[in-house]
Amino acid sequence: MSDISTRAVKMAVAALEQGLREHAEYPHLQTTRDGVIQRFKFVVDTSRQLLVRVLKHVFNLSEATVQKDTFREVAKLGLVAEAENWIAHVNARNRTSHTYDSAIAEQVFAHVPSVLPDARDLLQRLQPYVG
Question: Buried (b) or exposed (e) across 79-92, using 16+ Cβ within 10 A?
Fold first, then answer.
């Protein structure tokens, strides 16, 4: 068992779930939508960071291999069900990074709920490898 922890991902998922509940309660507030998008970014970022650590420290893969294509590597190892789902999450996350556009924000927001089952599945699949 490794000293790598899933705590940050679990916290990010819980925060995203809370944000989605708040948005459902106040759907007219752009600030709740924007907060949900920010929390989505945390889920994607912390999940990827965790996977990089697992690939390097549990599976002893090189930095170059890990950085090049994290989600395809972890899919080969059975740590995620579908690499393409995670690549779509990263692409949605990246669309919000450098500019603010309300139309893009709405598109990303529509994508946000799809990360939750993938993140929960990831946490389940990582149990044998992390603390």
Answer: bbeebebbebbbeb
Distance (Å, whole) CA 14 – CA 8: 10
Distances (CA, A) of 104 to 4, 75, 90, 93, 111: 34, 28, 14, 11, 11
Give residue-wise pLDDT tens across range 4-22. Answer: 999 999 999 999 999 999 9
Architecture of domain 7-126: Up-down Bundle (1.20)
> By three-state DSSP, how is residue 24 classified?
helix
- For residue 112, the 8-state DSSP code is G
pTM recorded for the entire structure = 0.92
